Structure formats: C-alpha cells, structure tokens
Amino acid sequence: IETVAGAGCSTFIVHARKAWLGGLSPKQNRDVPPLDYDRVYRLKAARPGLTIIINGGITTLDEADAHLDHVDGVMLGRAAYQSPWVLADVDRRYYDEAAPTADPGDVVLALTPYISEQLGKGHRLHSITRHMVGLYQGVPGARMWRRTLSDAGARPDAGLELLREALDCVTRRSQAA
User: How confident is the model at residue 127, as a pLDDT?
Assistant: First the structure.
C-alpha cells in the first residue's frame, strides 16, 4: 500500500482474505483462509487519507452497512453474481433515489431488445443469460428458471422464446404461492 500510494494511487479495494498460493485450489482459497475484516479496518485507520473499499464474503446490504462504519466502500462480488437482486435496493438505500424497477421480470423484459440485437449478431443466448440465472434466487420457480436458462439456453438455436418460457415458469410459480 505504501509503495502504490506513494506513486499516487489513493483508492484501494482490499480483499479481506489472504490467498494461499501453495497447496490450495482457487475454490479452496474462497473458504479456507479466514476472512480478516479487522485487518482492512486497521489499514483504513492507519491511512485515513486513502479510500479503502473492502471485499470478501459480503452477501447483504446489511453486512455492507456494518462495514461502512469502518471503511469508505464495500464490494459485493459473488453475492452480486449469484443473487443479483440483492442490489435492487442500492439506489434507494445509499443514494436516496427510487429503483428503476421493483420486479426482476421487468428487468428481464427491459433486456429483451438488447438480447434480440445480440442474437441477431450471432451471439448465443446462454452467453447473456448465464449472468441472469441467480436473478430469482429464493423465489418460487427459481429452479425452473435456472434449469431452463442453463440447459435449454445453451442450445445454439435458443432465442427469446426460451427466455419468455423461463420467465413464465417463475411468474406462474410466484403467482401460485
């Protein structure tokens, strides 16, 4: 930090887990070395002029709030990918702005023109929707949503009709619940 800050960098995203380069796989490195948030907090306390953003194992906005008592920012990595709807409340909670939509289905529908354009350019549906499989995490019908997008969505001929089918699976299940 001293060397890089001395060269003019003032913002650092610090992962709270040490990576063990010998003896652990990348997957094991996500769990085995313990997270040490206090170490990141101490860095911020020692260098208050730097912008310190913490990363590692943070899965909810409530957890982010607790970290913001000690550091300047929080990064949600896997949580944002695995359960992207966790970010739906960020605008209201941190910027006092209304969220652009209150429903994941509206997000999917808003993406359809982009997806259609990409399919027209020869891109496969799966290359886009694989980033959306966690959108309905914890919602009735989420398993069918994921399965439809992951399995059938990987076919070369998969198109918008499959996306609508997946959306219907989750919409029907949530209305029945």
Answer: 94
